Structure formats: C-alpha cells, structure tokens
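User: For my dataset I need records formatted as: sequence, then structure tokens, nothing else. Please produce one.
Assistant:
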Amino acid sequence: MKNLLKIVPLVVALSLVACKKDQKADQLIVSDETAATAPVVASPDEMVKEAQAKPLTTVALSESNFEFGKIKKGDHKEHTYEITNTGTNPLIISQVKPGCGCTVPDYTKEPIMPGQKGKITLKFDSSSFDGMVNKQAEIYANVEKAPMVISFTADIQP
C-alpha cells in the first residue's frame, strides 16, 4: 500500500502531460535518472486484487454520470459523487483513477462503515478541450465488481 501511495503523484503528473491537446506521444522526454528511480505502476488487475483482498461489501452511488452542461474553455469544475456502504463490512476505497490528467480525484480515505456515506470528487480542468467531452474515473474498492466507473460530460465553449 505504501508503494501505491508513492506512485500516485507520478501517475497524476504523467497523466497531466497526456491530456495536452496538441502534444504528440513522442514529445515526452524522460531522463535516465527519472526512469531509474520511478516506481512500477500497478496494473488494473493488481489494483482490483488489492482492493478485493479485504472483506467485500456492497455500495450504492448517488449517480454514475454527471453533466456539467456548457462551460467556458479554461474553467475548472468539480462534482462530488456520494457513495453509500450498503453492505455489512467497512467500505475501503483504495484508489480512484481518472482516465486523464485533466481530472484530479479526491475521495474518502478512511473506511466507510456500513450504512455510512463517503464522497468522491472529480476536479476537471477544461483548458485543453473544445466541444463535447466525456471523462471517466475508475473506483477501486472492496466490492465484487471492481472497478466501478463514474463519469461526467461537458460542452466546452470558446
């Protein structure tokens, strides 16, 4: 778990670069020094296995998709999804992984007890986009069908 917490900032930093509209894949330059010290990123299968290593529970999301509607290019928007532990074991969200670095997650880190609610907030930077966008984030938790997916849409106006 400690290794996973060390790689999250690196994944977020690399994802930020991945969302630039005009950037090509071959423009990212990683020095040998950075590559030698960079931790290995866990695969989705490894993240699911880690999340499901705890006793499983069930959850209910307030919504799985949110529509921001029309927003101005450059706006920073955020939306909070509510997650309720409907099972009998504590809910442990081990990671929320956005599909793009333009989206930064924040979520309840402590165990969510049965019957209690937690929050997952997605913060979106629209600076690099035009028109309709659809973004997703995967929630890795101790539930049978992990990862769960939440998403949002926005119509980016000039």
